[in-house]
Amino acid sequence: MSSPPTIEDVANRAGVSVATVSRALRDLPNVAPATRARVEAAAAELDYRPDPSASALASGRTKTIAMAVPMLDSWYFSKVMAGAETVLAAAGYDLLVFAVHNDDPGDRLLHRPVVRRADALIVVDIDISDEEAAELAASRIEVVAVGMKVPQMEAVVVDDHRVAFDATMHLVSLGHTRIALIGGVGEGRQQFSVPIERRAGFVAAMTAAGLALDEALIVDGGFSVAGGHRAMADLMDLTEPPTAVFAMSDEMAFGALRELWDRDMDAPADVSVIGVDNHDVADLVGLTTMQQQVVEHGAQAARLLLRHLLGEREGDDVHVHTGLIERSSTGPPRR
Amino acid sequence: MSSPPTIEDVANRAGVSVATVSRALRDLPNVAPATRARVEAAAAELDYRPDPSASALASGRTKTIAMAVPMLDSWYFSKVMAGAETVLAAAGYDLLVFAVHNDDPGDRLLHRPVVRRADALIVVDIDISDEEAAELAASRIEVVAVGMKVPQMEAVVVDDHRVAFDATMHLVSLGHTRIALIGGVGEGRQQFSVPIERRAGFVAAMTAAGLALDEALIVDGGFSVAGGHRAMADLMDLTEPPTAVFAMSDEMAFGALRELWDRDMDAPADVSVIGVDNHDVADLVGLTTMQQQVVEHGAQAARLLLRHLLGEREGDDVHVHTGLIERSSTGPPRR
DNA sequence: TTGAAAGCGGTACCAG
DNA sequence: CTGGTACCGCTTTCAA
Fold this sequence. Notes:
The structure is a homodimer. The first copy, chain A, is built from 13 helices and twelve strands. By secondary structure, the first copy, chain A, is an alpha/beta fold.
């Protein structure tokens, strides 16, 4: 139960100074091969590992990345986290995660101790004001965004407009003309650009197809299964229900399917349903969807960040791709 | 772009020593109310926040908790993480998450820098050898386990034997006699106690019901949707397929349901299916399941840990409960 | 109640 | 190529 060995213990054992140990163990140049070997041997014998706090204090770098998400227990965010963690761990960085719930204007990210513990920050679908963006840009913290564009901040971006356009066009190409949109608005500090862009893409597709836009067919599903369920119920209660539905997320699409089943209806026989994400369960329920390589979102963000940390600021966003996966929930309208 | 204010800046501004600032800001006793107010004002004006690395180095406490899971992007683990994060954040602790993949025997948790950054560790379904458990117990790191029992380590435990017993008994009570088990073994360093206990519970229930145990009806589903799918296919290919299936997880149950649908069969008309977890999608597909309050698993672990960190070592495991949620995937056997 | 000062365990600059 | 040493910013005795 003796306290862990310090750099000084290693220095004594190897018969060199702490400065040399520090250099040798970090693979810095200007260390004689023989010396390096001796130091490494001593460190190994003592089972020495540097204290991260001491090293952080002295160097100003923590080798830690913080990640802010609206919530930890959602399919999308856990995938993004996993993607980032894999890349970061390989590079020797640890991942600190935290949820940003409210939109208390006094709650700046930079004020959180957790951010101070990190060299960089990945923000995922968090609403960031222009002032806060400027604050972050001026800080020592590197920041990368996932899923939204923030001024002066590099990002892993999805072309949400196009995703929605393509999804809607898929329904159009099957012959649908009465197409509904189940969308949503983010909650709390969640970012609004995703629903806004997707709605715009939907509208653009309808317009391009020369179809009428019926506001009654645009409903809110809150980006949850339950919300999609309710939204679909409202749609089916209309005098003239839609023959196809584009849900902005697979979760909402699941809810929509559920409502159909509750009514002893089926997709695509009664209504076609398409979602976005390619959620793990989409395959199970046969949901047609716009696939997103969600794990890659996180991995790319991490790579971008590591590049920044190495001083390579190229200022290029990473664009991730999507594609249609046709399953059994979409088909031509009846008759 | 000036560097952030230090404790000394605050001390100067308040006209006191850094020692006093340190005490005042941490609400330690022996600080005159007037002094404390002055210090707080100065700190607020300067927008001062202590450097976590410095404070960690000086105090030996990091106010950070590490959490080890087999993987980050799985439904169960993200729920546990979320539960823990909520509790920890409220207590001023940050959460470091990392995935433990392989079972390289040289890969001790204690050797990871990430663990050194933390005051405590939550391990979830990780296989820990007795030696490693002893190492951890002797270290300065507090450890709490979730989902498995490790010698000398407090834990949030599920009575897996009983979960399986109850699930199986549900099928028995519906009149089934030919009941299959879709189980699995953990991968890599994942812990084996869950499948072992659940299998034992299944066997106990079958025995208690006076039913024959057919080894051909015990198959591996690898705790994944795909594995459950395959496992169910094997079962249905038997000369005498089961009339009911207990899957050790909802994911595997989803796969089983999928296989039934692929064969144009249905639950419970052709085969009853019950799972474990109450996965978010279980409701959607009407899966009967043994509910687990997964978020609570994480929250309880965090509370246990916080109690330890406050020096209250009571040595009592937390037992979390489960319960049957009957949906439409189980029913009496046909005829 | 307050202050002075000795660390905590590294890093990095400057000499040699 | 190596060593000495001044910090990094905060905590924590010990005295006053």
